Amino acid sequence: MTAIVKQLPEAGFFKNLADHRQPKAEPPTPALIPIGRTSFLNGVKSGKYPKPVKLGERTTAWRVEDIRALIGKLGGAA
């Protein structure tokens, strides 16, 4: 996971955090946090994971700074 963290920008937003099914036409994108989407969203609801930011009516993302902090808290190198 350290290699993925090094590829994250210092600031900005990230959309694909948890594993979720994608249409077959799209190439698979690896999840940054290795848990299912529903489990991740339940963790957001309970306060275990950071809350997302609404960027538009149908676009939700997480701050890269919050994700780096989460990975550091979970034991990875942020």
Description:
The chain is of the alpha+beta class and 78 residues long. It is 35% helix and 22% strand. It has a three-stranded antiparallel sheet. Strands 2-3 form a two-stranded parallel sheet. The longest helix has 11 residues, at 64-74.
Short description:
The protein is of the alpha+beta class. It has 3 helices and 5 strands, in the order αβββαββα.
The ordered string of helix (H) and strand (E) elements is HEEEHEEH
Mean pLDDT level: 76
Helix share of residues?
Answer: 25-40%
Are there runs of 5+ residues with pLDDT below 50, and where? none
Strands across the major sheet, in which order? 1-5-4
Question: What keywords describe this structure?
Answer:
single chain; 78 residues; 3-stranded antiparallel beta sheet; two-stranded parallel sheet; 5 strands; 22% strand; globular
